[in-house]
Amino acid sequence: MIEVKHITKSYNGKKALDNVSFCLGKNETMCIIGSMGSGKSTLLRCIAGLEHPEEGSICIDGCPLTQKNAGGYNYIGMVFQDFNLFPHFNVLHNLTLAPIKVLGVSEKEAEEQAYQQLQKVGLGEKAFLFPNELSAGQKQRVAIARCLMMKPRLMLFDEPTSALDPIATAEVMDVMRKLKKEITQVIITHKISLVNEIADSIIFMQNGKVCEKGSPADLLYAPKQAATRSFLSYQKNMIYRIENAQFDRPELNARIECYCNRFGLGSQAFHFVQLVVEEILNLLPLDNGLDLVLSKSDTEVRMSLNITLSFEEKMYLDPLQAKDDLSLSLIEGLCDVIQETTNEDGRKLIHLELNKERLL
Ligand code: ADP
Ligand code: MG
């Protein structure tokens, strides 16, 4: 359906895309993962015709997409992180504008189609509202419906849920799930759970190159490249280094919140995780530095917190030695498993499993 061959794109002499190739069949969904600056957005923008690669070719159903053959880009819809709706037009007008202006569809016909598309994304009742009267999840669903109005053969999504809270994310994911059966999709996302569920194939990008391609079973569960493994472990875990007692607490809390969001855990769960972290840090010596790792189980609502610090004889979580009884009893109440062990290499490890019910 789409064939990308050896495309290269540079900005100021630096390659944002370096010899990127992939193929995707009709009604297949491909996800693109990779860290910031790896070229994911540039790749989608080249496919959408918002940028033009210096080398290589992009074909849809055998027809090359080029600046000269710009009509081909009408078959492609693109959804952005920040919706890009026209704020001064109502929802209906946002949807009908392009079909009327670009495809020459009559106003009546465009409106009929718009109602159908709005129905499809669950917003049949919202046609006369303005973008600022909608929630973020509703705005993103309008943006998707607006793309569908152009009858695209290919939908491109650039981090469609990364500006959204867990509820809005779930709404948008629901729409993407339905679309999977009907249309070819390329999705850039950091949500590994979405990738796992929706992707037929995945590419992992690094420094403008495709570092690894594969099915979810291969790429997520048995990655071949060390770079892919390290990216995935970073995505699954939140790793935070605390250098000393003056560390940046608001930043740590923000990281915990992002992490909880990524797994669709609500604000209650976030406050709970934050509380456990606060109490455990209150019991530990911070001045020699420690590493805090938050991980979430793939299959259930379970989170654990692992802390590594340089070894000391003292048992920080022993009732007789703990420096704060209240913090310790809070932790005992908030965690199902509490372990304090010493490694052979002389480091102390603390493992906590957070109470499952409180994460729901
Ligand atoms: P990603 O979406 O994976 O975070 P991008 O495709 O946005 O990465 O960016 C890839 C590289 O290209 C980055 O180094 C970025 O700074 C650079 N880049 C992207 N767009 C532009 C632009 N319009 N002008 C200059 N450099 C850009
Ligand atoms: Mg990007």
Q: What does this 3D model show about the protein?
A:
By secondary structure, this protein is α/β, with parallel strands linked by helices. The chain folds into 2 domains: 223 residues, Rossmann fold (3-Layer(aba) Sandwich), CATH 3.40.50.300; 126 residues, 2-Layer Sandwich (Heat Shock Protein 90). The chain is built from 12 helices and 15 strands. The strands form 3 sheets. A 6-stranded mixed β-sheet has the order 6-7-8-3-9-10, with helices on both faces. A 5-stranded antiparallel β-sheet has the order 11-12-13-15-14. Strand 9 and strand 10 form a beta hairpin. The longest helix is centred in the last third of the chain and has 17 residues. The mean pLDDT is 90. The structure holds adenosine-5'-diphosphate and magnesium ion.
- Taken as a percent bin, the fraction of beta residues is 25-35%
CATH superfamily of the largest domain: P-loop containing nucleotide triphosphate hydrolases
DSSP, total strands:
15
Order of helices and strands: EEEHEEEHHHEHEHEEHHEHHEEHEEH
CATH domain topology of the largest domain = Rossmann fold
CATH architecture of the largest domain: 3-Layer(aba) Sandwich
Q: Which percent bin holds the helix content? A: 25-40%
- Distinct ligand kinds: adenosine-5'-diphosphate, magnesium ion
